[in-house]
Amino acid sequence: MADAAAPLTLSKDQIIANFADAHPKLGAAQAVVAANRCYFCYDAPCIEACPTEIDIPAFIRGIATGNIAGAAYKILDANILGGSCARVCPTEILCERACVRTAECGEPVDIGALQRVATDWQMAQPLHPFSRAPATGKSIAVIGAGPAGLSCAHGLARLGHDVTVYDAKPKPGGLNEYGIAAYKMADDFAAREVEFLTAIGGISFAYQQRLGDNLHLKELQAKFDAVFIAIGLAGTNRLGIAGEDLPCVRNAVDFIAELRQAADKSALHVPARVIVIGGGNTAIDAATQAKLLGADEVTMLYRRGPKHMSATADEQAWAQTHGVNIRFWAKPLQIQPAGSALSVICENGTFTADLVLKAIGQLFTGAGGEFAAGRIAVDAVYSTQIPGVFAGGDCTPGIDLTVHAVQDGKLAARAIDAFLKA
Amino acid sequence: MADLTTHFAGIKSPNPFWLASAPPTDKAYNVERAFRAGWGGVVWKTLGDDPPVVNVSSRYGAIAYGGTRIAGFNNIELITDRPLAINLQEITEVKRKWSDRAMVVSLMVPCDEASWQKILQQVEQTGADGVELNFGCPHGMSERGMGAAVGQVPEYVEMVTRWCKQHSRMPVIVKLTPNVTDIVKAATAAKSGGADAVSLINTITSITSVDLDLMAPTPTVDGKGTHGGYCGPAVKPIALRMVAEIARDGFMRGTPISGIGGIASWRDAAEFIALGAGTVQVCTAAMHHGFRIVDDMIIGLSNWMDGKGYRRIKDFQGAAVPNFVHWDDLNLNYKSIAAINPSLCIKCGKCYAACEDTSHQAIAALRENGARQYRVIDEECVGCNLCAHVCPVDDCITMISYPTGKERLTWKEHPNNPSSPNFTHG
Asked: Which pTM was predicted?
């Protein structure tokens, strides 16, 4: 990618090591020690802080007592993508911030790591933990095979409905497959999780079907009893500055998607100097991965201060300890060629790079005219203004986190079930 | 620095920390390592008649609690399985090299006078400071009429103790089994037989756990298990009670007690001494952590004594005995109620769950502007302490003395007590 002439500075083995699991799984003894730090609170603040309302003290008790199947069931019953969430949730601003141990001593129970212990165990078992209700004869189209769509599909299948999941991409998983740093989803986790959750049965997939392109709502409405739209955010925000369309100025989401799909990351060439513009998780993931691919100098330019970043303090520290420079209060005004490189001119300085990645947020573009631009409005039960058409996840208003998308999908499945039975 | 020297039934040691008769004291190698680490004395692992016993594999079971290893410990090992002559020779050599340390030899032979007479003479020649009669071992030996089989019959305890006093000039410590209904009866028998001291507790008959795959009690020996002797931190409360029962008994008063049972720290030792013990014996903690734990025990006890102004062990030995009373001597008009310090509360709600589910519904779970608040309902609180125990934060919940304005009243005088002179019912 980018500059093919740039020297590859890292060996293949080094790159494989760089993209290994960011936080390897706790061992059995470590898990018991971590689990025993949980106080098994009454009215536990961590549950309240979890967007999917996982009964955290109950599942941790299962790990402490050796009832790991019970622990996994509790997690996955509330959040079928509990394995992804264990890896990508910003627990430091959710359950672990609420953990009473944080108030007590600043060291929360390692909830995310414990959740991974249980969900990984379950995924290694031959049998799917949930069974389907008797067949209802109803069928639902889910558009988008990301966290919201998968969560909804599993919920509907559990309730006895048949589901067809459409996705614009050639693979399922959405952001889990294409949009998150590789080391967070090591060992092809996104694909394995899809395989796990579809083992319940009743879920089929149709790929490379893009809403508003070769897939149309009207046709789906005619064919299915209900439709759930979870197509995420296809568009990216523009900087609106001169030089934005120069060669070697790219969207960070495309950079990450390409990296995630590369069978051999050492075959990807990253130039010596990379600038990432933005302050969210996408910016962090792009910058850190550029560094891990072998870029000498990776700089994030963010227009405001560390507290304003949507990437958490932990994420910022992760990038920084992996060699990324974060320049705060650096708002790009213009990008211009500088010999074979690019100069990003900010109010307080000029930064030079061979590749500039833009990561200033994504937006909903209306799915080829099927909807108005801006996000899809839904009511409290995920219903759009079109009867029988529901929506959730990032394409609807709300917080854009995997765990929120999973909750949307879970609750939408219940709402669709109620709609079909009404 | 406080003086930790102890004089126990005529046996002197530089500190009260002895290793109990057990695997750590089975041979010279271990005992010398212990002395180098600073232990004040040892009770050599129990000697018996030749030919020696045979031990099994494996020998130990343990309870892990909340991730903590060896909260309770159990063994099915017997007395020494080495020839008597080797043990006697090593005892002689070690005592000669470490003359300032207490060297007590544990003994267990069949229940006939000649057997005891013979082994006592052999032990006397080693230069050992005293003997401890093992009347406590609850497994393997008791089935052969030794150990707890003797200790559970006060008449046997008295008889064997008398033989030992007749046939030896050495101080005799009688080690008592806790596997009895009334520990004082066995202690009384020992004293009546002439014992110079008692030591307690020996281990408690137990099954540590069941291996649910093998369907056998642990530790398993070729697929089978047997009951063993339970010890370690979990047994300390049982041992403290038995030591205190003997310490406050009128007949036993003044008889030296060597406290044993779950002692792992200087604080544990201080508690046993406060309830009357003159020395303490340790095994499980050493087996768990190694001999160097004695360093903290010595320094910790000394520092604590310095802080309290105690210069010698004697200064606080037995100090808690007068306050160990029978239930019907407790003041029924005393009242304390719980108080939660909101600035320390971490909102875990454990006090609420405990009180609401299992006690007196005396804690309110409130939300003030969404924030959790736990508050004691004073009128409902009976001062049971449960909330303070379940609270994970030190000093967050404290028990506050609550003035009732009433005079001290015990059950003995209470009007509800049919045997009280003030009985008014009906």
From this structure: 0.91
